[in-house]
């Protein structure tokens, strides 16, 4: 086995790996991300090839090691992956007691930037209008069935996100077995067919109209999917996942004690325009949960159709 590339990154402020990388997790069976007692393993497909990245916090520094053809790219991306370059200037939640206390307790949470657009978009497409359980099952099934083994000493069973050309060759029955309906599979294939164009949206920075326009040029990708993508791939601090089944109620209950709709959510978040996704991450990281009442989204099983 080849020796890994490694580095030690010492951020100016502490980084909490679990809080920062939480948006990348797709459940306990996610073959691309695995937590262990020492840190986190991430299998990824970089522009230079496949890679396995291991991150571990030691004191105030982060130790990183990577294996595979994409190891150099993965190592170079560690600072941005863990929030370097995220500008928090002008962000102030002192006027809201809930957010102020939550932010105080989440000192190590940062907004990540993976610089991998297709990966983020495919995951979001699989989550369109289905439950988290369904989306995670689909992600695990497709990555395990079509992804490459993670290079280096990655934990057993870890797989790398498939290449665009591989996604385009996934047969219809594999989408079906994974519980992915024809509309989502068509959208995923459309995204894979323009993968290089999607990656070029990274040059527009951490979000904004140009990024959203580029992402939404894919048929089947709307406001929600574009927001979910830019939050992870671009590190967008402001994008809001409008159209989410649960999100408006969570925001309303956390900030004013009552559920709201999408318009109400946007109104509540308006004072923090430019940092609205940052507010969402604080609410999520605080552990706040919506009380379990009212109708739940029905799980759809397309495999028997």
TrEMBL record:
InterPro entries reported in the protein's UniProt record: Alkylbase_DNA_Glycosylase/TA, DNA_glycosylase
Keyword flag Flavoprotein: no
Keyword DNA repair annotated: yes
Recorded superkingdom: Bacteria
UniProt keyword terms in alphabetical order: DNA damage, DNA repair
Any GO molecular function: DNA-3-methyladenine glycosylase activity
Cellular component annotations (GO), alphabetically ordered: cytoplasm; protein-DNA complex
GO BP annotations, alphabetical order: base-excision repair, AP site formation; DNA alkylation repair
Name of this chain's protein: 3-methyladenine DNA glycosylase
Organism annotation: Marisediminicola antarctica
